[in-house]
Every structure is written in structure tokens, then in C-alpha cells.
Amino acid sequence: MLRNMPKLSRYVPAVLILLILAIGTGNPIWAGSAAVKDADESSPAAPIQAKAFNKEVELLYRYVEEGNIQAVLEQVRKVSGMFEASSFQGLTGVEGIHVLAESIIEMKEATAHASQDPQHWMLTAGKLRLAADSLTHTKDALWLQYFKVVREDLDRMREHAGKQDKQGMSSAFESLQGHYELIRPSLIIQRKPDEVNMVESWLSYAGGLVSSGDTEGVQRIVPQGEELVNTLFGKKRDEPALAPLGQVKEPWTWQVIIGAIILAALIFAGYRKYRGQLNSSKSLFPPKA
């Protein structure tokens, strides 16, 4: 081994040069394998597979609406097989793929008890339907239609809390929880984990306040919930949630009004400064007798 050292020393300068060049270009040579790995993670077949998967889940949902348990059982097996054979990497993160798998498992369990709890069966099918749709639709996904419903739940929470109506407040919160549970897989598929965690932390805290009957606390935190919901649904902070288009005033109107007020204030201040300087000059140079 020691005899080979002189031969290896001849390659040391070349290796050092390659390392310096690689670091200088911001692309280390050991990053090549990582880049290849990232490229493999974004499969070009993923959108096609997601579209086919969504189509089969839509058919599954129709069978549930019809109450055809036997057809649903067969379709669930088909959907499950498609999920196992498909790759949705690049369309969602690990959390999204995991929650999609959970939704399929929940659908299997709900179908097994469909006759005992048909309402839960329908809700589970709807959850899976929204989740599959969110894989193929980013800007016009079906779950985005629940924005108005969720905001109405929050409005009712605040309204009942303001009236000290604890029962109504609790009912509104239960409705909010139910709607959130329905769109939760879609949120996890399309939104960042920290955004989802913030909403769920808010829901947990709000649930504690509602359980304790703290109406003042509920009124205090509802605006925070509205901001979080606006963020999840891609709405602006200052955008009215439920205002009709005809009632939304043009932003340039307010800019002109505010600008006019500022201009008037500046003109008035300048005029007062001018009058002050004029009076001062008269006192320094009194008129001749």
C-alpha cells in the first residue's frame, strides 16, 4: 500500500483543481447524484396517472350516490390498485401521498359498514373525491368551493359568541370541524405542511374555548381563523370574503381621495409657514414712519 503512494500523489493536484472549479461554479461534483435523484422524483407520467386515478374515483363517488354497494366494493379495489401502481411524486409531497392512502383505507372501512352508517359512507366518498380532484386541478379544484361555507361557519361562531349563545356557538364550531375534515386531505395535498399545521393548531385551541364556554375568547380568535382560512384558499387579507362583486369599490378611488387629503394638508401647512415668515419679516423690519 505504501508503495502506491507516490503514484497516487500525481493525481492529487488534478483532484484539487476539479474540487475548486466545482465549488467555484456553485455545483459540487458530489451533487450530481442528488440532482439525478430529484429528476427521477418528478415523473412525467404522474399527471397522466393522476388524471386516470381521478376519473376512477369520480366513478366510485357516483356508485356511492346510487347506493350500489357491490359496485363500490369492486371500484374501491380498482382505485386501490391504481394508487399502488401509480406515482404522484411531483404533484404533491410525502404528506399528500400519505393522506391519500389514508383516504382510500377509510373508504374501504366505510364501505364495509355502509348499511349501518350511510352518512359516514357518503362523507368518506366525498373526501376521497375532493382529494383525487386536487391532484389534477391546482387553480380550480373542487375543494376551493368550500371557502364561502367555512367563512359562514366562522361568522356564525362569532355571532353566537357575541350573543352569549354557547349552544349555537358549539353548533357552529361542529359544522366548521365537519367541513374542515371533508377538505383536509385536499389541503394536505395542495398546501404547505406549516400552513395546515397552523390551521389545525387554531382549531384545537378554538375547540378548547368552545368546550369551556369562553364566548369572549371565541370572539377574540375568530379574526385569526379568518386570516388563516383566507391564506389556505388563496384569498387576500383585505379582500372581502363574501361581498358581491357589485359592492366591491375600485381601489383607485380610495387612492385619489387619500392623495387629495394629503395634498390639501401640505398646501395648508405651506400656507401657514408662508404667513409665519411674512409676519416675522414685518416685525424685523417695521414700516417707516
UniProtKB/TrEMBL annotation:
Pfam families documented for this protein: Spore_YpjB
Q: Which residue ranges run through the membrane?
A: 252-271
Which keywords describe this protein according to UniProt?
A: Membrane, Transmembrane, Transmembrane helix
**This chain belongs to which protein, by name?**
Sporulation protein YpjB
